[in-house]
């Protein structure tokens, strides 16, 4: 995945004044502290102002050295970079009827989950590829347990840019995942149906499964009262609402085993499954824990799944998950020819060369952000990344 695709040469040579081809005295007079000042350019992915073909006239019409950089940065090479190993972040969103329950400010549970997912996609931009499925898909009152399916194929995230208005991936993701919840919770059938597509995706794939309840919709299941959803949710006036003659019938059983098995198969194929339980799922903490353990993403202590008690915090939880899988490495398609002449910027702010909280060379063609700089990137708070060569590297003091 590419960002910062513009490369410009010949503005200053290999350092701020190395390319000055006029009088030595004029060139040296330009190589002052002011001439080396780091002045960030506007957004990556935007067209930079093209440099003048010749030197700027000095006082009295005489020619002088060029500015530090006509685009605003000290250096003559804005590198073409690729996000190293951008993961496929694949949302599997519960769209069962219970997701219509009111959450806050007139919004439903599904509204809030949808909003948080869209925000994450927007904020992470090119750091991820994103796809989505909902379950069930195309459910009706007569067929409430149809398996879920893909509504948005895996697509590269939007490139870094200054503006928020041109975000095609985010816009399409928002539209594709805007559904009206209806039906049951066919989690196992959905994951089983999605598995072949997910396994074939190139690179690392991570599933984020968000649900407000326990999996069901297994018409062949039978269960005792302990595994009957109506009984679990304390809504059964009988001993067992899932008994053959009970009002819930076989479809009301908790589909624990098949769901855990479907997740385990994905994990065995190298796909991590993060389980997010939102309000409404409190009755099912034990099965959500089992699902998280099977998915290879369990937290250190129970609850092993990502429990969300307040939907206002869901965005933070999704960001935490993303921070685990997003890379802070940038591969340069055009590595600099000279050592010690490269600088990194996040949102027009210089990031010093620092092995703790800045950046380093992981290899001659890979820049890695570290510590605070990496966390800032993973949090989705970075709108543009710039890697520029042609001026001495600024180190942390």
UniProtKB/TrEMBL annotation:
Pinpoint the VWFA domain residues.
88-321
Q: Which UniProt keywords apply?
A: Signal
Q: Which InterPro entries match?
A: VWF_A, vWFA_dom_sf
The segment annotated Disordered runs over 36-74, 152-172
Superkingdom: Bacteria
- Using the record, list the residue span of the signal peptide; answer none if the entry has no such feature: 1-32
Q: What is this protein called?
A: VWFA domain-containing protein
Which species is the source of this protein?
Sorangium cellulosum (Polyangium cellulosum)
